[in-house]
Design goal:
alpha/beta, TIM Barrel, eight-stranded parallel β-barrel, 8 helices, 39% helix, 16% strand
Length: 231
């Protein structure tokens, strides 16, 4: 069965997504900025409110995915605090100025996460070579998901790239989590054509498809039903 991950920004979002049949949440703040680190209060409240896994983004600002020493100091403090909660995993991504994966920074994050799994987020899509970047990420056992739109603004424009990444992921611990631009209508044929085993929705499962609107439970339920029919 294809895993369905839904972005939540509030406790109400989290509850609606769970009721609709989401398998996992990505908890963020600042949807309009692509997601920033939520407060510990929100994290603990959401974890208390739902039974499905809650993955938490750690992103200190939306300027870029290249971080300086001060940024890392902030992120590592946040990660240690999140690791002490019942959150499921950390969602994070970091690049060097040349577009390569910041392996040193990722190693430091994994150490701070204290055993929690890592999803490498769409910083991946800004890497200079997606396939080389994916190979590097598979060397880190803690990285179990890579969230990607295949390097395009919408994942629906990158079906062939996603299919190649899915093939590349075979035999690794790393799952391709396809997201950005997915719609209710397109999800079933997209899954069929790419072979992805996990999809990620943000605006597409919100009221009227608007980023700042609440999660639409009925849309979540519809996508869950469509995914249940895919093989």
């Amino acid at each position: 069965m294809t895993l369905l991950e839904v972005i939540a920004t509030t406790v109400a979002d989290a509850r609606a997504a769970e009721r609709g049949g989401a398998d996992r949440l990505e908890l963020i703040m600042a949807m309009g900025e692509g997601g920033l680190t939520p407060s510990i209060g929100l994290i603990e409240s959401v974890v208390d409110a739902v039974r499905i896994p809650v993955n938490v983004i750690v992103r200190p600002h939306s300027r870029s995915f290249t971080y300086d020493a001060d940024d890392y100091a902030v992120m590592l403090r946040d990660i240690r605090a999140i690791a002490a909660t019942r959150a499921n995993a950390i969602v994070i991504g970091m690049l060097n100025a040349d577009g390569s994966i910041d392996e040193d920074g990722l190693s430091r994050v994994i150490d701070a996460a204290d055993g929690k799994q890592i999803t490498f987020h769409r910083a991946f899509d800004e890497a200079r070579d997606l396939h080389k970047a994916f190979d590097i990420l598979t060397k880190f056992d803690a990285v179990t998901n890579v969230l990607t739109s295949g390097g395009k603004p919408s994942v629906l424009e990158a079906e062939s790239t996603i299919a190649k990444l899915v093939a590349q992921s075979k035999g690794t611990r790393c799952t391709v989590l396809a997201g950005a631009g997915l719609t209710v209508e397109a999800v079933a044929p997209f899954v069929a054509s790419t072979g992805v085993s996990a999809v990620h929705f943000g605006s597409g499962l919100r009221v009227d498809g608007k980023a700042l609107a609440p999660v639409d439970e009925a849309r979540v339920r519809r996508v869950r039903g469509l995914l249940n029919k895919t093989v």
